[in-house]
Amino acid sequence: MTKFCKSAWVALAALCSPALTAQAQQAKPPVPREFPKAIEPSKIVLVGDSTTAVIGGWGPSFCAYHVTSFVACVDLARGGRSSRTYMQEKSWDLALKEAQVPGYRNVWVLIQFGHNDQPGNSRSTELAQEFPGYIRRYVDDAKAAGATPILVTPLVRRTFKDGKLVNDLAPWAEAVRQVAKETGALLIDLNALSAQAAIALGQQQSESFAQLPRSTSPAKGAPARAATEVNVQPTASVRLSYDDTHLGEEGADYIAAMMAQALADTVAPMRSLLVVERRPDRRPAALNYRAQ
Description:
Elements: H1 3-15, H2 18-26, E1 42-48, H3 59-65, E2 71-75, H4 83-88, H5 91-99, E3 107-112, H6 130-144, E4 148-152, E5 160-161, E6 164-165, H7 170-183, E7 186-188, H8 190-206, H9 249-266
Parallel strand pairs: 1-2, 1-3, 3-4, 4-7
Antiparallel strand pairs: 5-6
Helix pairs in contact: 3-9, 6-7, 8-9
């Protein structure tokens, strides 16, 4: 027998030894594979102006920190839009298509307008008939699409005069309340909640909700990039400023927590999908809001 054959026989004998056989028998069985049941996700679609939109509104903080992973939270709010122009430019059509995507157990559409509906600009609507007419149409269209509309009164402007809050959006908030009453739509009275908060905090603390401190000059647009051989296009630039309407990071976190609590109190099927606690990673400068 050759040396190679002898080595092969030795190896085969070792594999058949009682010790190795016992060791193989003691090996752990494979972990059973999981076969989970299908999930039942829900969706929240945010519709409105800059006070709900990215870079200036409460929507991004809400979607990022106040819903569980079983909720698709889509912020389709756009800056500078009124209830009329959002619909006329077909943004509303996109929102309705988003609401009709199959596979979701519940779809809620949150609708907040009013800031750009005020007179004095080309986007405005007439308060007595036109504005409530558009809000009513949002409700009817959302219902027809199989979604649940939730009307949201406009976020208060943090404007003070002689130490008192000037709520210039109160008439538009009242119009939204009336449409909710007439149509039976769910309502989050953000105007009243944010006005109460602004009054409690006072003018100085409310200023921390802005994008920049009052004394800061508005940021200028980023300079255009130099042309390259591949013609790289510049990225979008953010233009921040101090005003009493839009929200910086702290203001967005505060109002998002407020909205989460209000929704949990108002929409029972949504409650288990909402995180009402404030962001754990935020510094206390957001004034420690936590709804009771």
